[in-house]
């Protein structure tokens, strides 16, 4: 069970790009420690822009973000980036070293851990994603699913409090998708999963939040939201043909 403590609290977050286009418009959201929450919404809703705020990739313009009661500001940026692990949509954005081992060690090395501690973190993170055999391999020779798992390992090696995944199943074949789903279920971490894959949201996340027009328009049990055909249509969300959220059953 998740605790009632908030792992993430976002209040009145607004953001506009230099051309004046407002992407986030007073978005507020809380995620409890240990929860897995799906972030759903149409293209252009502001999901990725929101995610890029959570560890300071984009600078705060208006509103506040707290991670385990630590406010996101310039002074705390290093600590927030350790606590909020971002797994980008394209794993190649995260894998840039000659070997998987070096990629996973990169974050712990930046934290100032010594070689023995780095080796321990690498072994632990690769074991958690069932990729211990990949340690000496070159990342760009891995399959899409393997890369995604290693990208998650690079983040787990930092011992984050919150895992933020942007479209984690995009481009994966059914077997890779199944492996990734099982992996995310096995991680005892607070997770915020940004996805267009509604069956994934139903399987993994007891709670979903729909963002549209840069603000939260619905927040509730995933099964309930996905059963509301009018709500889905209104925000350009569509279940696969023949898929029934009630038959499939909610996440546990």
Produce a short descriptive summary.
With 252 residues, this protein is of the alpha/beta class.
Notes on the protein architecture:
- The protein is an alpha/beta fold.
- The chain has a domain at 6-90 and 161-248: P-loop containing nucleotide triphosphate hydrolases (Rossmann fold).
- 35% of the residues lie in helices and 25% in strands.
- It has helices spanning 47-53, 77-83, 100-110, 115-128, 144-156, 174-186, 198-204, 222-226, 229-234, 245-248, and strands at 6-16, 22-32, 36-40, 62-67, 70-71, 84-87, 162-166, 190-194, 207-212, 215-221.
- The strands form two sheets. The chain has a six-stranded mixed beta sheet with strand order 6-7-8-3-9-10, sandwiched between helices. It has a four-stranded antiparallel beta sheet with strand order 2-1-4-5, with helices on one face.
- Helix 3 (100-110) packs across helix 4, helix 3 (100-110) packs parallel to helix 5 (144-156) and helix 4 packs across helix 5.
- The model has no long low-confidence stretch (mean pLDDT 91).
Instruction: List low-pLDDT spans.
Output: none
CATH level 1 name of the domain at 6-90 and 161-248 = Alpha Beta
Q: Which homologous superfamily in CATH is the superfamily of the domain at 6-90 and 161-248? A: P-loop containing nucleotide triphosphate hydrolases
CATH domain fold name of the domain at 6-90 and 161-248:
Rossmann fold
Estimate the mean pLDDT confidence.
91
Number of strands: 10
**Shape category:** globular
User: What is the CATH architecture annotation of the domain at 6-90 and 161-248?
Assistant: 3-Layer(aba) Sandwich
Beta content comes to 15-25%
Calculate Rg over CA atoms. Answer: 18 Å
The biggest sheet, with number of strands, parallel, antiparallel or mixed sense and barrel status, is: 6 strands, mixed
**Percentage of residues assigned to helices:** 25-40%
Give the neighbour order of strands across the main sheet: 6-7-8-3-9-10
* Secondary structure category: alpha/beta
Distance between the termini: 10 Å
- SS field, number of helical segments: 10
């Amino acid at each position: 069970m998740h605790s009632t403590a908030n792992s993430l609290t976002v209040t009145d977050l607004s953001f506009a790009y230099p051309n004046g286009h407002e992407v986030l418009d007073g978005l507020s959201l809380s995620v409890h420690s240990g929860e897995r929450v799906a972030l759903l919404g149409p293209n252009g809703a502001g999901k990725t822009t929101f995610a890029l705020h959570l560890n300071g990739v984009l600078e705060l313009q208006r509103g506040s973000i707290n991670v385990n009661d630590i406010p996101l500001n310039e002074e705390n940026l290093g600590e927030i980036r350790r606590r909020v692990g971002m797994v980008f949509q394209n794993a190649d954005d995260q894998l840039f070293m000659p070997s998987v081992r070096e990629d996973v060690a990169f974050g712990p090395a930046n934290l100032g851990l010594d070689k023995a501690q780095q080796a321990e973190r690498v072994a632990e993170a690769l074991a958690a994603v069932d990729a211990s055999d990949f340690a000496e391999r070159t990342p760009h020779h891995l399959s899409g699913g393997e890369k995604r798992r290693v990208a998650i390992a690079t983040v787990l090696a930092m011992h984050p409090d919150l895992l933020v995944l942007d479209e984690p199943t995009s481009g994966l074949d059914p077997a890779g998708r199944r492996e990734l789903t099982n992996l995310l279920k096995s991680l005892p971490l607070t997770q915020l999963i940004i996805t267009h894959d509604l069956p994934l949201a139903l399987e993994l996340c007891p709670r979903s939040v729909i963002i549209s027009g840069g603000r939260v328009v619905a927040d509730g049990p995933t099964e309930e939201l996905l059963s509301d055909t009018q709500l889905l249509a209104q925000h350009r969300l569509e279940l696969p043909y023949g898929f029934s959220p009630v038959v499939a059953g909610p996440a546990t």
